[in-house]
């Protein structure tokens, strides 16, 4: 067994908080920039969060913060929680594309889709989501798509998402799914990670990333990651000192022959969490060198930067 990892070794952050990254053109408004301070309903739902213009980080700001933290690469997932037009979603993709192009290969983007206007009752032009995804892949080189079940009002295995899942399987794109009890006051049932089991069974070659860990269903999330070869957990928005006990046990050991550290991706959700503090805390988890390197770097490189594999 190798000694615990120190402050050395490369790090890939598999999930940053993109609504606070990049610019916002009033002539081409982004669908992820919602002013909920003027809406009493949204203010109640999002009472633990805030978005303000001072929080926006440029590509240079982000890369400097990554350098300070020792983070070599990162993923930029688009996040559109509330009603947004197709144009608004495409504007988010354009901004993420601009950030990735300015990064010298250190950043890669993850698309999203226009939220279903009527939740499960949305019935018109379901294939619009596929067109948006295909365009993001062709124009901006995204490596996946991000789904947020709770604010959209339906679980990720709902039939409405199946054209997107099939397209990702066809194109070799990953599906990032928000799991676990949401911080905002959204219905939690849609984010039970057990919904991912049906997707993984139907699309065995599809890479599924369950981000935000899945608490309070962490035991289920761990079992799913061990059960399905292409299903991974991601620690976004969790300070490492607060990782649920089942996840830490999985990272240090495994389950039924699966090495846990090979099925978990490190992420911070920076600038929601400070990338420097979270990365330093993750290095101090006491994992042996092989497990620490897999968790902090190698898993994400293998999945999203395969061109760098030796």
Automatic annotation (TrEMBL):
It holds the Pfam family Amidohydro_2. This is Amidohydrolase family protein. Residues 58-304 form the Amidohydrolase-related domain. The keyword Lyase applies. InterPro entries: ACMSD (IPR032465), Amidohydro-rel (IPR006680), Metal_Hydrolase (IPR032466). Keywords: Lyase. It comes from Actinomycetospora endophytica.
């Amino acid at each position: 067994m190798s000694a615990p990892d120190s402050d050395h070794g490369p790090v890939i952050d598999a999930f940053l908080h993109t609504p606070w990254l990049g610019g916002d053109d009033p002539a081409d408004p982004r669908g992820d920039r919602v002013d909920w301070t003027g809406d009493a309903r949204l203010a109640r739902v999002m009472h633990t969060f805030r978005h303000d213009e001072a929080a926006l980080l440029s590509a240079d700001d982000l890369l400097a913060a990554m350098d300070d933290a020792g983070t070599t690469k990162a993923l930029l997932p688009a996040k559109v929680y509330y009603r947004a037009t197709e144009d608004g979603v495409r504007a988010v993709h354009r901004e993420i594309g601009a950030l990735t192009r300015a990064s010298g290969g250190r950043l890669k983007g993850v698309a999203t889709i226009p939220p279903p206007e009527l939740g499960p009752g949305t019935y018109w032009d379901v294939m619009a989501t596929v067109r948006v995804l295909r365009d993001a892949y062709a124009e901006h080189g995204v490596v996946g798509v991000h789904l947020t079940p709770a604010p959209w009002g339906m679980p990720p295995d709902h039939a409405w998402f199946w054209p997107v899942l099939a397209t990702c399987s066809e194109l070799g794109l990953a599906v990032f799914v928000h799991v676990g009890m949401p911080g905002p006051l959204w219905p939690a049932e849609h984010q039970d990670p057990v919904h991912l089991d049906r997707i993984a069974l139907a699309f065995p070659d599809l890479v599924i990333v369950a981000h935000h860990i899945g608490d309070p269903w962490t035991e289920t999330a761990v079992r799913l990651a061990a059960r399905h070869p292409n299903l991974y957990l991601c620690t976004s928005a969790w300070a490492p000192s607060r990782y649920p006990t089942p996840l830490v046990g999985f990272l240090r050991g495994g389950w039924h022959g699966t090495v846990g550290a090979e099925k978990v991706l490190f992420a911070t959700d920076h600038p929601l969490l400070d990338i420097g503090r979270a990365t330093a805390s993750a290095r101090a988890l006491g994992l042996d060198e092989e497990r620490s390197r897999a968790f902090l770097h190698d898993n994400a490189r293998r999945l999203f930067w395969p061109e760098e594999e030796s």
